[in-house]
Design goal:
Blueprint lengths: L3 E6 L1 H10 L16 E8 L6 E8 L6 E7 L8 H4 L3 H7 L3 E5 L13 H7 L1 H24 L4 E11 L1 H12 L6 E5 L5 H7 L17 H10 L13 E6 L8 H10 L10 E6 L9 H15 L1
Parallel strand pairs: 4-5, 4-6, 6-7, 7-8, 8-9
Antiparallel strand pairs: 1-2, 2-3, 3-5
Helix pairs in contact: 4-5, 5-6, 5-8
């Protein structure tokens, strides 16, 4: 059974409405519009353990609403994607229910307390294991999301950033026939190249001291890396966004994946797009990335 806690906010405009609804609009005291947001915390049932999820939505918009699962990056947690950049809010304003799960081993997950130690021992092992578990949990997570009151089960999508971008690609391939669209930001495929090039693995950095990949992780990469199965995406509308200044995961990973995907979208070229975003770093996502992701999901899901 899912556990839920709810917080409802009117935002700044809503606060004005509560205090000045009866005042003269021409005085500037009355709001031009009022937006009401709900942020609810759940433990969704998963195949291995409960999945902690934040659900962010506008409660003043008509439903049922489409929904998107937005996966976060390594070392992060679901709350960061409400507080650090505006993509979740913009999607909610566009009429989406936004589900933000904690990745395995992160946030409220049972093994989160030892995440830093695991990453310092082997970033590739933890990174790839978390992606694989998220992919294995996706069916259960989307079953739960589709049954949530106010969600349209026929209009579902996936998005993710960094580790979450790789996860979104894995999920998109596995649930291709169930989803309306997918967006991968700053990561999608090419796990070995990412681990070989990332600037988080170096003396004085937070990652491990070397780039070694053990046999178990190489086998996992062979199973999960979308680079090995570009034929499993079309005709799902898929957007790859990658900053040209990304030093955590080089943009060449997305470029290579895009070249493999393009032939499979030859019959529907409008359903695939790869954008190298000028002057964009790995984190945080720039306004151009936020706007592009919102536009893609709105076009293909709304």
């Amino acid at each position: 059974m899912a556990i839920a806690e709810r917080t409802t906010s009117t935002g700044a405009a809503g606060a004005q409405a509560l205090g000045g609804a009866g005042r003269d609009r021409h005085s500037g005291a009355a709001p031009l519009d009022t937006r009401r947001y709900e942020l609810a915390r759940y433990h969704a049932p998963g195949p291995f353990e409960p999945i902690p999820v934040l659900v962010y939505r506008r409660t003043d918009l008509p439903g049922p609403q489409p929904a998107v699962v937005y996966y976060h990056g390594v070392t992060q947690r679901k709350e960061v994607y409400v507080d650090s950049h505006p993509l979740a809010r913009q999607l909610a304003d566009a009429g989406f229910v936004v589900a933000l799960p904690d990745a395995p081993g992160h946030g409220e997950r049972p093994t989160a307390a030892t995440l830093t130690d695991r990453l310092r021992h082997s970033l590739p092992r933890e990174f790839c294991a978390d992606i694989e578990q998220s992919g294995d949990e996706a069916g259960a997570l989307y079953d739960w999301l589709a049954a949530l009151p106010g969600v349209d089960p026929d209009r579902l999508a996936v998005a993710g950033l960094s580790m979450g971008g790789f996860t979104a690609a894995v999920v998109g391939s596995r649930l291709r026939d169930r989803l309306r669209a997918a967006v991968s930001i700053a990561g999608s495929a090419g796990l070995e190249e990412c681990m070989a090039a990332t600037d988080s693995i170096a003396p004085g950095k937070w990652g491990p001291p070397d780039r070694s990949i053990d046999t178990e992780t190489r086998d996992r990469i062979a199973r999960i890396d979308p680079l090995h199965y570009p034929d499993r995406f079309a005709p799902l509308p898929l957007l790859l966004l990658h900053g040209e200044r990304d030093t955590w995961n080089p943009p060449t990973t997305s470029e290579r994946f895009a070249s493999l995907l393009a032939p499979h979208y030859a019959a529907h070229p409008e359903r695939f797009k790869h954008v190298s975003v000028p002057n964009a770093p790995h984190w945080p996502p720039t306004s151009a990335i936020v706007e592009s992701a919102t536009a893609w999901l709105t076009t293909h899901v709304r």
